[in-house]
Amino acid sequence: MVKLNSNFGKLTSSYLFPQIEKKVSDLKARSPSSEIINLGIGDITKPLPEPIVKAIVDAILELENDVSKARYGPSIGFSFLRKAIAKNDYLDLGIDENDIFISNGAKCDIANIQELFDTDSIVAICDPTYPVYVDSNVIAGRTGFYQDGKYQKIVYLPCEEKNNFFPKIPDVPVDLIYLCSPNNPTGTALPYDELKKWVDYAIQNKAVIIFDGAYEAFINTKNTPHSIYEIEGAKKCAIEIRSFSKKAGFTGLRCSYTVVPHELKVQNTSIRECWVRRCETKFGGVPYPIQMGALATYSDKGKQSIDTIISEYVDQMKTLTSGLKSIGWKFYGGVDAPYVWVKAPSSSWEFFDELLTKAKIISIPGAGFGSYGEGYIRLSAFAPKEHIETALNRLSGIYTCATQ
Ligand code: PLP
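A: This is the predicted complex of the input protein with pyridoxal-5'-phosphate.
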C-alpha cells in the first residue's frame, strides 16, 4: 500500500492569509460602504514597462515562423539571458554565465535547492522569515514536529530589535543557512560586516548559505552589499537567488535566477554539477518569450523604465515612513526594502484588528512570519501612493503621537 510522505502531517496550516481574508470580508459584510486600503501587499502594483512588453510580444510573434523557439529550451536557461545577467549583475564579481541558472521564480528554487543536501543537515533559519525556507525543509524531512511555535531540529535565528534585526551566529553547529537581504518581512538589509560574519562562519564550518536577494533592486544605502559574492570567499560557500518579480514586475510572468558558483564544493563534489543534473531531470526551463522579456530588462530602455518604477516605489515608501514618523510610530526597514516593520502597542493580531476596524487598513501581522514577529505588523510600499496618503490621513486622525 502506498504511503503518504508523513512529513506533510508535520506542516502547520498557514492561517495567515485565510484569516486576514476572513477578517476583511467580515468587515465588508458589516459595513459594505467602507473603503478598505490594503497596505499589506507583497505583490507589484504597477504594470509591466513597455520595452519589456514589446520584447515579449516580439518573441511570441517569432514563434509563428521559428520552431526552434517553441521547442524544448535548455533547462538551465538560454545563454543570451545568462550572459546578460553575468555582464550586468556580476561583472565585477567574477560570476561565470555557466554558474547562472534561469528559473520560473525564486520561490521554486528556494524550495528546491535543499534537495542538494543531506536530509540530516541542520538548517538555520531567521525568525521572523519568508515561510518557504521552513516549509520546504519540513516536507523534505529535516525537522521534527511543530511545538510551541517552532519546528524541532530547525535552528531558529532570532532577528530582534536589540540586534537591529540581524541574525546572530548560533552557538550550535549548523550546515545550511538561509539568509534574506533585504529582508522580508523586517525590511532591513545586512551590512557588509554582518554578511561577512556569515561567510566566515560558513567557510570555517563547511556550511552552505542560501542567500535570497529577491529585493536586491530596492537597496539604497551605500556600501550595503547587493550580492553575497561581494564578500571574499562567498563563492566557495554560498548560493544566491534573485528574481525579476519585484524588480521588473514579473510576479505573474515568473522568471528568476540562481547562482551556483563552480567553486562551491561539498565533500569534493561540485554543487553546480548537482544542480545542473537536478534541473535537467526536474525542470523544463522558462518559456522563450518570458526569457526575452527578462533580457529586455537589461536594455537601455528596459533599465530606464525599471529605474523609474523602483524610484516610484521608493517614493511611496518615503511617503509612508515620513507619515508614520509624524504620528510617532516606531518602525524599522523601509530604506532598502519595500516593507516597514512597525512595532505594535499590543499583539500583532490585536494591532491588525485595531487598524482594520478603526482605520480600515489591512496590514500583515508579524506573528504570521514566526514567533519573533509577534508584536509587529508589516506594511508595504507596493500600495499606490494615493492609497498610502489616504491611509496616513486616517491614521493621523486616530493616533497622532498617542499610541506609542
Ligand atoms: N523571496 C522572498 C523573500 C519573497 O518575499 C518572495 C516573494 O514574495 C520570493 C522570494 C518569491 O519570489 P518569486 O516571485 O521570484 O518566486
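The two ends are 59 Å apart (CA to CA). The domain at 6-48+301-398 is CATH 3.90.1150.10 (Aspartate Aminotransferase, domain 1).
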